[in-house]
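Appendix B. One record, verbatim.
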Amino acid sequence: MSTSIILLCLVVFGALAYVAARSRATALAGGKSSALHSRPGYYGAYAAIWAVLPALVVLCVWLAASPGIIESTVRNAFPEDVKAKSAAEQDLSYSMVATIGRGFNLLTADELAALGADTKAVQAKLNEKGVPLAGEPQPYMLDAAKLLNAESAGSRLIMSAIVLVLAVAGALYALRGITPRFRARNRVERVMLWGLLLASSIAILTTIGIVLSMLSEALRFFASVPPLEFFFGTVWDPRFAGAGSSSEGQFGLIPLLLGTLYIGFVAMLVAVPVGLFAAIYMAEYASPKLRSLAKPLLEVLAGIPTIVYGFFALVTVGPFLRDLSSQVSGLLTGNYTNFIQAQSVLTAGIVMGIMLIPYVSSLSDDIITAVPRALRDGSLGLGATRSETIKKVVLPAALPGIVGALLMTASRAIGETMIVVLAAGVAARMQINPFEPMTTVTVKIVNQLTGDLEFTSPQTLVAFALGITLFLITLCLNIYALYIVRKYREQYE
């Protein structure tokens, strides 16, 4: 029985348990809901939880543990000469066994019997079924594949029986314990509380796992490259010299960090004024009809993939700025030489700012709209104009939320990759001219992890050091924004 069918059976059992428990509770109360401790729906939910939750936990544990147990059993069945090989060679052998087993599942019993132990025939037959093998299998692999399929089928059969029996037993146990004064609501709410706690813990544990995974690899990098050279280095050249040379590549973070902050700063210069002014207009000045039309159209920008913005920068904005600079240079000096490169900080910043406008606008609009109407009416009643009310009442009251919106926008700008690749290039440079190309940390993370590489060299491990650096930058932004939010929230709550 497949996992999807088992889940469907659990849903059916849960629904039946819900209906049965609800009916039983109502019948025991003589049809009077007032005689019950909890509403009938809580009794049904209590039975459904007992029918589904224990069985679902067993199913998840079984699916997580059984592949490892089956693999260990199959590996133990390998010949002794195969067990004596290296771990990599054994992994390769097991991978071929798993492929053969997957192919055997596509064959009928007659086809499988006709093949016998002919390895060449097996390879040809599996190729016909769309399961190509890297080479001719060994005879022991055929037996191991059959053992793998047998163990998997047996494990799935036992799992299905245990899960279904457990679901039925859970439903019967819940139904047996139902009485009119049974505190079903308390039990259900306790389960829901634990569910909410689990959901919150998943988010926290995921963050911790991401940080630890990056930190562990970053520490391996810092074992080869001193942290001072990385954090304060001014040259980014992560290539090792040829044979016979003792010089190692240079992994200076400063050029990448400056490029990240510079491009993000230009993007925020574009996005924040436009997005914030658009939010103020839609929240305070626009008619409901215009707002209902303009806000969705503005938010369409948020749904455009970043690669499309990159194409826009590469094909339209970059050449336009380059040609415009050449025309301006020609008018002023007579020399039609462009001083703005097609790939530049300005190009990337403008296009990234356009991408970020809906983030600033939509979030700020919702925050400004949430400011209590009484503050506006009080200011207008005291004789302030609408613009004065916005500047001195609405915006200060909405400032904590706006700071949070700008923080999210800044984080989005720092983490952008595709626009920078196409609009600003990949050159790691230290310069302050916005008309020249630069690159960012995220672009170099992609570059260092592109290709068939192993996580053993500093060239690859440096990507994790760059990643943990971005995390720390974002963390600092969050801490500062939290300080601002708390400071102003105390004044306006």
